[in-house]
Amino acid sequence: MRAELAQVLDRPIEEIDSKQNFSRLGVDSATATHLMIALEDALQVELDPDVVDRLFTIDSLAAYAFNLTRGQEWKPPQ
Questions:
Q1: In this predicted structure, what is the pLDDT of residue 45?
Q2: Structural domain boundaries enclosing 64
Q3: PROSITE patterns of this UniProt entry (predicted)?
């Protein structure tokens, strides 16, 4: 995910901190959509289109996607 986001944002992967909020990384709605499509294609899962609004970091998005690949539901902390 870091590599995909780095490519979309046209930045070196070293500048993409998986614990930093998407908004601080410069992720807008178009970037979020691109990232979600790439993730769905790579993992062969269908993601909730609003997930990036509820999950604020790459780490939390990865945990969500990982659980989906295992057939488990994951709820983000409130």
A1: 82
A2: 2-69
A3: CARRIER
